[in-house]
Amino acid sequence: MPGAVVVIPTYNEKETITAIIDRVLASDSNVHILVVDDGSPDGTGRIVDGIAASNDRVNIMHRTEKNGLGTAYVNGFGWALEQGYDYIIEMDADGSHQPEELSRLLLLLDNGANLAIGARWIPGGKTENWPWYRKLISRSGTTYARIMLSSKLHDITSGYRGFSADTLRALDLSKLDSAGYCFQIELAWLVERSGGIVREFPITFVERIEGHSKMTTGIVVEALSKVTTWGVASRLGRIPKSQPLAVK
């Protein structure tokens, strides 16, 4: 089943999931969807079950409990690779990422990128309805990660991104150190230090209007702690340069 699949992790997203699925399907007739639901108490999984029953472009993976964003994506990646998709895309369920921008992401992958990232902090990128302190936290965290990890990426924390299947097959995802939101940082850094081609394109990030953000102070502290640990270890030579990725 060649083509692209959008992996969407969910936990209590009943207010937004139907609209997001409809917008993704409308964005490209060849794109499929995999929802990875962590046993949402609000019935998100049942809503997607109903959609999937009548649309073979929509699939769902039920997990029994909330086990972290990173593990949801790793499970989704594994399913997508087994199904033979060419490209695997990450997207939030809350409407922050615009499905209408998906074509630009896919074009970068078509043109040889191992990883394409929708960036807020490059020319043309922007956020809507974000309070100043959220912008400050995001930009400060991104800058800190960029410095500590010697990264050239401008939005290494962005969750709107896509990989070629060959890239994910070449990476040992079982050795990733993070399961939460800092999974995004670690995986992008792994592709970058493996010599992969990473391209960023500007996106409009829209603050959710339904439901509640999953971001907490604890998540921010965990990410900063891990980034510090990785950065120091890398400078001390304790994290070797990864094996080169085969670029096709």
What kind of sheet is the major sheet?
7 strands, mixed
Q: Which secondary-structure class do the elements indicate?
A: alpha/beta
Based on CA inertia axes, which overall geometry fits? globular
Task: Provide the spatial order of strands within the biggest beta sheet.
Answer: 3-2-1-4-7-5-8
Helix count equals: 8
What is the chain-wise order of helices and strands?
A: EHEHEHEHEEHEHHEEH
The portion of residues assigned to helices is 25-40%
What oligomeric arrangement do these chains adopt?
Answer: single chain
Q: Give the low-confidence spans.
A: none
Question: What's the rounded overall pLDDT mean?
Answer: 90
Briefly characterize the structure.
The chain is built from eight helices and nine strands. It has 248 residues and is an alpha/beta fold.
Characterize the structure shown.
This protein is 40% helix and 17% strand. The chain has a 7-stranded mixed beta sheet, sandwiched between helices. The chain has a two-stranded parallel ribbon with strand order 6-9. The protein is globular, with a radius of gyration of 17 Å. It is α/β, with parallel strands linked by helices.
